[in-house]
């Protein structure tokens, strides 16, 4: 059973905000539904923190929106990174612009940082109960060296927090 079948479905429709339409259009008119987290388009695990985390980090709930999408939007940052086009309702556009646009995942996790994080993860998972104190201290020292490399990437500005913006696309 995959993550989608195990997920506890939670409604994240911003019904309390003005301009959010939950009802469909008249008969014969096709409407798109809001897809703020990519679940409806099948991309949620791939896009979790820009692909930095896998589906095992999704947690027990899957949030979705039942509102009608009002337009198509694309995320972008000042460094030139662009996300995929998403259908959003006016309520989620407001929520994303207010509080969900704090960091661009490719700016926060460039390839060099992802490589170092993978090395750190490998060291952390290599510890066994049969290791002696000297071996564990050696692994800890390697972790501190890798942490210094990440600190250097931050100091050079290669790892940074760049806000994302939403732009309506036609």
Could you give a short description of this structure?
The chain is an alpha+beta fold and about 170 residues long.
From the structure above, extract its key features.
170 residues; alpha+beta; 2 domains; three-stranded antiparallel β-sheet
Question: What can you see in these coordinates?
Answer:
The protein is of the alpha+beta class and 170 residues long. It has two domains: 3-101 and 162-169, no CATH class; 111-155. Helices cover 33% and strands 16% of the residues. The chain contains five helices and five strands. The protein has a three-stranded antiparallel β-sheet, with helices on one face. Strand 3 and strand 4 form a beta hairpin. It is elongated and about 65 Å long. It starts with a helix and ends with a strand.
C-alpha geometry: elongated
Give the distance, in angstroms, between the N- and C-terminal Cα atoms.
38 Å
Unreliable parts: none
Number of strands: 5
Taking Cα atoms only, what radius of gyration do you get, to the nearest Å? 21 Å
Task: Write the H/E string, N to C.
Answer: HEEEEHHHHE
Give the overall pLDDT as a whole number. 81
Across the major sheet, the strand order is 4-3-5
Proportion in β-strands? 15-25%
Helical amount: 25-40%
Number of separate helices: 5
Q: Would you tell me the structural class of the helices and strands? A: alpha+beta
Biggest β-sheet description: 3 strands, antiparallel
Count of the domains: 2
